[in-house]
Design a protein that fits this description.
The protein is α+β, with helices and mostly antiparallel strands. The chain folds into two domains: 294 residues, Naphthalene 1,2-dioxygenase Alpha Subunit, Chain A, domain 1 (Alpha-Beta Complex), CATH 3.90.380; 112 residues, Rieske [2Fe-2S] iron-sulphur domain (Rieske Iron-sulfur Protein), CATH 2.102.10.10. Helix content is 28%, strand content 22%. A hairpin with a 2-residue loop joins strand 13 and strand 14. It is globular and about 85 Å long.
Length: 488
């Protein structure tokens, strides 16, 4: 009997780890689970190895820089960082630089950060200005990108009389829940279309608009941006990299959603208050004790108690939710009794292609951003922590960004807390991964059918950008062929 391709596709990714699934946890929740978290889906992405040169080749990095980073929606800054007219953030990605600024009418615009005279960067740092003046020859543009002054303008009649040549070129801008996104491709689909699933889920269940940034750090990392991003996009690595949490984290029982109508937005959910299926069965009290001991050290999740009994008929997860619900409610001065256990406990990490990853949560959820480095062997990772604006108080100013070099550790970022310990474990893997990818003994990168399917989809989306860019520029697809993700 033969097997059709359709039947084979259904089989790929159908297996699941023993133990309760995230949806099983939702069914046992003590509160109403938000609609967004009940929206779960999986679409097979194949099994073929991904070419390892995608992580190490300067030629492939150049294709990404030319066609992917210039055609996708990326987080540029927080709206809070540009509150006043003239406030601006310099967003650098790959070879490109944008000036994201607040205009006098309150709107936000993004201009290419290059003088139209001889290319000098207009600004290298964030700040506030009345206009953008080139430090080389003094050409000056108003906040709306119109040319305001050319010293010795008599010698440039061909510029001053041509508005298309005198205005700073613009990128598309979108603002969503306090985040400012940019896209350098004027023909790209609107943000609202690309991020529709993200917008739908967050508008229904999660609120970032009433949050402000309490922590922001960016670190140069010794690995390709995809190596770094992928490590924060799956729970498969927990058993080896973060063994301190396996008593209370259902790592292999995590949920990975790929929706057929939303290839640019995916989600990873890791359930807490349950044990890892890698362990033999342990008592519910042991699960709770381990969870509370770990969490009592984490400033963002301190509860009102560091120990509590698990009564008969209850689970460690249910008691943990009660403890954290009370502790966070007292901390934020908010009644959290209507929130479900999963909202209180679990890690819900969304991903908007290519490099924006917001957590959904009610405490101080994190937001991640990744960008390529100067070579394929380095990248930059941003971490934001977002807290609710205190009731009845004026919106606080966002935390200033702390910049860590390649040699510095996450522990050196003031305010990162225990999160730095977890990140240090992740970072310890990256140089090994980057070095191993250059081994002649390993021909490609092998992903799991389910737990790492989202990673394969991200690679396919990268290919889509590159192939579309090559076609639009009249160049052959053969240029990218050695690096493309195989079908199947």
């Amino acid at each position: 009997m033969t097997t059709t391709n359709d039947e084979q596709q259904i089989t790929i990714g159908a297996r699941r780890s023993p133990g309760p699934s995230v949806q099983d946890l939702h069914r046992a929740d003590t509160g109403p689970v938000p609609r967004a978290l009940l929206d779960e889906s999986y679409v097979p992405q194949g099994q073929a190895d991904v070419p390892k040169a995608r992580y190490t080749s300067p030629a492939f990095a150049a294709l990404e820089n030319e066609f992917m980073w210039t055609s996708t929606w990326q987080l540029a800054c927080l709206a809070d960082e540009i509150r006043q007219p003239g406030d601006h953030v310099v967003y650098d990605v790959a070879d490109q630089s944008l000036l994201v600024t607040r205009l006098r009418d309150g709107s936000i615009r993004a201009f290419h950060n290059a003088c139209l005279h001889r290319g000098t960067k207009l600004r290298t740092e964030d700040g506030r200005v009345a206009s953008f003046r080139c430090p080389f020859h003094g050409w000056r543009w108003d906040l709306d990108g119109t040319l305001a002054e050319i010293p010795g303008g008599w010698d440039f009649p061909h510029i001053t009389c041509d508005a298309t040549r005198s205005c700073l070129p613009e990128a598309q801008v979108a603002e969503w829940q306090g985040f400012v996104f940019v896209n350098m491709d004027p023909t790209a689909a609107p943000f609202e279309e690309v991020a529709a699933k993200l917008i739908d889920h967050f508008s229904d269940s999660f609120d970032y608009a009433n949050r402000y940034c309490t922590f922001h750090a960016v670190k140069e990392v010794p690995a390709n941006w995809k190596v770094c991003m992928e490590a924060f996009s799956e729970g498969y690595h927990v058993i080896a990299t973060h063994p301190q949490i396996v008593e209370f984290a259902g790592d292999d029982n995590s949920e990975y959603s790929i929706w057929p109508d939303s290839k640019y937005v995916t989600r990873f959910v890791n359930g807490f208050g349950i044990q890892s299926p890698h362990l033999a069965e342990i008592p519910q009290q042991q699960i709770l004790d381990a969870y509370l001991a770990f969490s009592s050290k984490a400033a963002q999740r301190v509860g009102s108690a560091t120990n509590a009994p698990v009564p008969e008929g209850k689970t460690a997860r249910q008691v943990a939710a009660e403890v954290f619900r009370a502790g966070m409610g007292a901390r934020y001065g908010t009644d959290l009794s209507a929130y479900s256990d999963t909202e209180i406990l679990d890690a819900h990490l969304y991903h908007l292609f290519p490099a924006f990853a917001p957590w959904a949560g009610i405490g101080q959820p994190l937001v991640y951003r990744w960008r390529p480095g100067a070579t394929p062997d380095t990248c930059f990772m941003d971490v934001y922590r977002m807290a609710p604006v205190p009731d009845g108080q004026e919106r606080p100013a966002p935390a200033e960004c702390q910049r860590l070099t390649l040699e510095q550790e996450w522990h050196e970022a003031a305010g990162m807390g225990q999160l730095a310990d977890v990140f240090a474990q992740d970072m310890s893997n990256f140089p090994r991964v980057q070095a191993g990818l250059k081994s002649t003994g390993k021909r490609g990168v092998t992903f799991g059918d389910y737990q790492e399917a989202r990673l394969r989809l991200i690679h396919r989306n990268i290919d889509e950008c590159i192939l579309a860019g090559l076609a639009a520029s009249g160049r052959s697809h053969a240029e990218a062929q050695p690096y493309l993700v195989p079908e199947g």
